[in-house]
Write a structure and sequence with these properties.
The protein has 93 residues and is mostly helical. Helix content is 83%, strand content 0%. Helix 1 packs across helix 3 and helix 2 packs antiparallel against helix 3.
Length: 93
Amino acid sequence: MSDFAELVARAVTPGMDRAAREAVYAVVREAVQRLQEREATSAGDQRFAYQQHLIEETIRDVEADVARFEALRKLDEALAAQTAAHSSTARRR
C-alpha cells in the first residue's frame, strides 16, 4: 500500500458511517487540489489526471476494505447466533 493510501486508510475506520467517511474523502480531495494549485498543475497536465485517478482509486480501495470488514463482522455475528441457537436446541434434547 502506498503511503498516501495508508494515510487515507488510517483516517477512515469501519465504525464510521458513510457521511463521516465522505467528509474525510472531501478533505483528501481538497488537500490534493491545494497541492496541485501550489505546483501550478493545470487540468490539461497529465500529472493532474494521474493524481485525480490515484485519489479516486485509493478511495475506492478503502471503501472496498470497509465493505469487506463489515461483511466479515456480520458473518461472525451470524455464526455466533447460529452456534448459540444450535447449542440451546441441543441442550433441550
